[in-house]
Amino acid sequence: MIRAHACYSAVCDACGEPLRDPDSEAEVHFATEDEARRVARSYRWPVTSGALICPETDPEHQAALDRLMPAEPMPLNQPTLDGETA
Fold first, then answer.
1. Is residue 56 exposed (0-12), middle (13-18) or buried (19+ Cβ within 10 Å)?
2. Which residues, in sequence order, are CB contacts of 2 under 8 Å at separation 6+?
3. What is the pLDDT of residues 17-39, one digit of tens each?
4. Cα 49–chain centre separation
5. Domain-wise residue ranges, the chain
């Protein structure tokens, strides 16, 4: 018998590699998106609402992580010790 199965896999947005079982190196499949995200987090993949990044540390992956970071906050006009605005 042959059956069709719908499943999910966690795939790195930077390099396109799927999450693999560390022992067998087989691609891991999940029943739900939430399960795929939860397991990816447990394998130390940074997970956001819109992206998954595997834990590689090369420049391509670092650039992908940097794009996910929020913008630097703008400095406020804070008074200095002498009462002037910086």
1. middle
2. none
3. 999 998 999 999 999 999 999 99
4. 9
5. 1-68
